[in-house]
Amino acid sequence: MADRVQEILSWYSSDNAGTKTNIARLLRHGKLAGTGKLVVLPVDQGFEHGPARSFASNPGGYSPLYHFQLAIDAGCNAYAAPLGFLEAGASQYAGQIPLILKLNSHDTLHDEKDPLPSVTGSVNDALRLGCAAVGFTIYPGSSHCNTMYEQLREIAEDAKDCGLAVVVWSYPRGSGLSKEGETAIDVVAYAAQIAAQLGAHVIKVKLPTAHLEQGAAKKVYESTRVPIATLAERVKHVVQSSFDGRRIVIFSGGAKSEDAHVFEEARGIRDGGGFGSIIGRNSFQRPKADAMKFLHTIMGIYAGEIQ
Amino acid sequence: MADRVQEILSWYSSDNAGTKTNIARLLRHGKLAGTGKLVVLPVDQGFEHGPARSFASNPGGYSPLYHFQLAIDAGCNAYAAPLGFLEAGASQYAGQIPLILKLNSHDTLHDEKDPLPSVTGSVNDALRLGCAAVGFTIYPGSSHCNTMYEQLREIAEDAKDCGLAVVVWSYPRGSGLSKEGETAIDVVAYAAQIAAQLGAHVIKVKLPTAHLEQGAAKKVYESTRVPIATLAERVKHVVQSSFDGRRIVIFSGGAKSEDAHVFEEARGIRDGGGFGSIIGRNSFQRPKADAMKFLHTIMGIYAGEIQ
Amino acid sequence: MADRVQEILSWYSSDNAGTKTNIARLLRHGKLAGTGKLVVLPVDQGFEHGPARSFASNPGGYSPLYHFQLAIDAGCNAYAAPLGFLEAGASQYAGQIPLILKLNSHDTLHDEKDPLPSVTGSVNDALRLGCAAVGFTIYPGSSHCNTMYEQLREIAEDAKDCGLAVVVWSYPRGSGLSKEGETAIDVVAYAAQIAAQLGAHVIKVKLPTAHLEQGAAKKVYESTRVPIATLAERVKHVVQSSFDGRRIVIFSGGAKSEDAHVFEEARGIRDGGGFGSIIGRNSFQRPKADAMKFLHTIMGIYAGEIQ
Amino acid sequence: MADRVQEILSWYSSDNAGTKTNIARLLRHGKLAGTGKLVVLPVDQGFEHGPARSFASNPGGYSPLYHFQLAIDAGCNAYAAPLGFLEAGASQYAGQIPLILKLNSHDTLHDEKDPLPSVTGSVNDALRLGCAAVGFTIYPGSSHCNTMYEQLREIAEDAKDCGLAVVVWSYPRGSGLSKEGETAIDVVAYAAQIAAQLGAHVIKVKLPTAHLEQGAAKKVYESTRVPIATLAERVKHVVQSSFDGRRIVIFSGGAKSEDAHVFEEARGIRDGGGFGSIIGRNSFQRPKADAMKFLHTIMGIYAGEIQ
Amino acid sequence: MADRVQEILSWYSSDNAGTKTNIARLLRHGKLAGTGKLVVLPVDQGFEHGPARSFASNPGGYSPLYHFQLAIDAGCNAYAAPLGFLEAGASQYAGQIPLILKLNSHDTLHDEKDPLPSVTGSVNDALRLGCAAVGFTIYPGSSHCNTMYEQLREIAEDAKDCGLAVVVWSYPRGSGLSKEGETAIDVVAYAAQIAAQLGAHVIKVKLPTAHLEQGAAKKVYESTRVPIATLAERVKHVVQSSFDGRRIVIFSGGAKSEDAHVFEEARGIRDGGGFGSIIGRNSFQRPKADAMKFLHTIMGIYAGEIQ
Which pTM was predicted? Predict the structure, then answer.
């Protein structure tokens, strides 16, 4: 299966050896090593939703060490978190799992229709903590999108110079969109395209619905009959919209939900040619043994061991 | 015809040898090499309009490699695209076609009356990707015009220091103008002048109509009887407004339209002394064979092989 | 008790030796040296409330030297103040007490609903004045929170590079919150989490009430039965919310109040596993002899000498 | 008359030798060389008003070369223009006439009550183009005046470090002033003072009327009986307001008008002790032979050859 | 009296030798040399109020040289002015009087309720002009106070690094205050405290009235019976509020007024322990001989030669 990693790396031929090495680190770690698939553990909910909403249901998660250990023990490809959480364990767990430093975050003590996350870490922080990649969230559709795109531009240029990989969370949101439109297939595909054009190596989007948000796009989807009826078809279209599959696209699990439902989604991602999942709340908000079993099932689906 | 290239280069005598070399690369590549005419393939629609609206009608175009190959095979002078699209092929196609890195882009998930594109790439990016030029869009007439002009000023100074050429898309738009005014001859000529004064080496404008937008200008056009009745006359006036023809001015094809109409426009550009076309959607939104034939006809018109 | 300091330092294993040394300086100075507990004297009221409101009741405090001497004589772990106050004595008292330079401050000659303090000092200032740490205030809940978080991000990165410790005053305030919500247990715990995620080594928050401010949080506190009835329980929850106790969290005394009340609070902090207090107005707004007695009682409570 | 140049240079004794040399270049070039008087050709109307309004009446002016040649042939002291126009001829005409690079410009495709020009060039541009000075426009009275003053501050510091001279166009305009107030004697004198205090070596203002705009100023003009009845008296007052005549102050001709009227103004400037004129539209919007004759008459008035 | 200078310098023990030397230069120059008292001549009215309002009553003052000579001849401790005025004489008068470069200024062609001066000079300018200090105005109470405090922070850090002294004009003004409140004793004392905390070496405030502006402060002044009935008492309180007299505080004379009144104020400043005066309009808006006599009387009062 090493060939699959080489194939994926060939899509990033303009990047330097350092960045290619770090993309390879993500792809060659954990239970899915070498398959070209990824399951990433992200834990930014403490900042985004507050500590009790994030960790009270499984209090082990108040500790930053818990998540390092969970990601390692479950065989995830990488662990992603904001500055404080990574600083609290990066030295102790050095070399045990690829790290992704989330460089911007948003809290809900002050809310606004058009969100703009704060930049809370730097490429230098990622380097001193031994990370393989930086992560950055953009909200296409927000009136602040220019600010986010330009922050990302600078960070991405800097990260690439330093041989890091760039992971972009592209979540449509803001006054330019209806609530339903945030996960509309045309909008999610557009968000993936934007992240790709901005130079992302790995793109993270939400799973799209069959809704079509924008009038001009709707006309095209209908006239050219883009298949979007099933989840697998929609995943396939998002992957196509990410440079015809030449960028790694992974999908987020969203809020905690029924296991069967999440497994069904993983099958859709796999069958549509998606590259994997980034699963936070569904992993760390349950007892560790459960979480490991749950993650292994998902990994099994991606590895083709489970149908 | 090499003399024509030398003549054109003589207009840029204040530029350094590196920039002159890169302008020459644009003029000495492809089927129109040495004629002083250019046909450029731009593909920024993925960012500007979203992936399906751009590529669903000819799905090969989802792949960034498609456009490199199309520009090369059709014998275009250059290929222009945003960061992601160029990163995805620059290494693979190194040295096969001059590249123009578009340094700002605008998406339609959040729309506003007075647009301000995001800066999405840098001069350093252009250098590491082996580009001949950087591209930048300004919207004269927008309330954000100062921001765009000042971003361009910094980029142009930096690009010229590094021996790159500077291509400016000058598209009047925003609350200062009526919809009809965006392509009015006085406004388009003014937009060309602004780009030239800002230090552009190559200026890209839309084809102007005979409409006159601004009262003070209208009076002058009428009293001094500037000929603007035919397309060729209007092209001639725009070229004159670009330092009396001492700057390269090319015209955009706009939305997909009838071939005969586009050819007629090319004749107007040629007869008015324009330097060529930048043709995106009319090229890549049709099957490749068709596109090549279509582009060759336009090149034939510019080369004088087709009347 | 030196083991306790070593234990605390082990939580900061990703920091460089300089920063660890300065955290140790805070923990190994004064009457509580080596206990893992801290009592810090902060004097920023001159800037925040004006000189007479701060010092008229005990006029010795108009002099910057008074506070250095008080902190030293009372055996505090550190003395924290803005630039002017530290400049006025840092050379004279060099090496006699660890100093914390407050890098932002806010005055009340111009008030606003969503406060944004001014940055009034720099990491370089802290270095030239021989400080062990920089201090910075954030107001989660303010519409200006992004600005503060990003100022802190830069300062913290810079301070850590230079081997300083970072102390964050995290005070929820602004249009996102009700007045009662500023000290609600869910909000204070969230504020502590934010400071920790932003990379604070030492976190200072206000003592929380049992009020629950945010609907989504209230639901979780109730369903998971987080104990918040007593002050000790609430302190415990805040400490838990600060990386499960792996960050130093100290509590502010607030406005001048009854001694018995303050001592009761200190017992609550101690019993809940808090790391100590930062006590300004209750110390310097009374005669020095009184202040020393008062502070020694609090230290005695933390040291376990007084029940 | 060389003594007069030395006398003028003595006013700039705090400047470095480079800047003094460049001020001297302006004063020792052309027909007025050595007299201490200047006639400067400025051509920024292409940017400010658009190409047709600027050049249609004398189409030779569309070419950037035309203006270099006109300024040289007419014996002007210097030629001032924005980046594009200077780049288009600086190399070709190197050393034939002192150049002033206008570093900010404003177009009329988007208009606003309180104007803020765009910065469109840099001190580095001026250096690479071999200029003697940089030019910068401020609009005292605009709500954006701080931005302009601070841009000028940085540019002037940089220019002086590099040995360039600084020419400031000081044009009162904006919501702080009535239309009539823009040329009121108190306002024009104030605008000259501001430019001088900001460190301008050469100040350009409009010719003032006898109107008094500001109440507090009116009272002083009347009580101290400042003579402002004739143009010469007003020019004298503006010169006095420019450090008692120790700064070079030149006056703009404004829109195209009757020759006799312009000559009358030149006499007023001369008789009031002004240092000369900056004449754009009245020069290049007429046939070249006419323009030369017209400019020579004005130079003759300044040289005292014509009464 | 040299001991008094040494005593004053001891308050600035955290400053480097360069800054101490420059503070000493201010204290050891002119008729009051060595007394610890200062009379400074400031001439920024040309920028602040316009030239005629400033100089028409004594036209010699239009010349920048006039003020250098006046300050030298009258034996002032220093001369303070904006960039242009200092550039016009700094070389000529090099070494004859300590200079203070005012780094921000405000004009009245555009007025606003919440003023924000423009930064019009730099620390580098102060160095190249041989200044002993930089001067900077803050308006506590303005909605723009953050901007001013942060500009001052940067400038002060830079100035101190370069061994210059920092003089802060602290003038409460803006929407946070009533007109009467601008000179209220609580507000002026607060303004002095803010300047001191921001790191000023020399603080300039207006003479306070007995009015109390802020409710919370009023309560404290009344309950602790701070004596504020006489001018001397109020000066004493302002000095106390400036680090208990460990910072140099001087008072401004304000608009032109009766000599007897100004002398009475000087006695109040002296008797309250103030460090002197900064006197502009009362000096340069009268004939030079008068001005010298007037200033000598004030100096005599400070020196204790005149009661």
Answer: 0.96
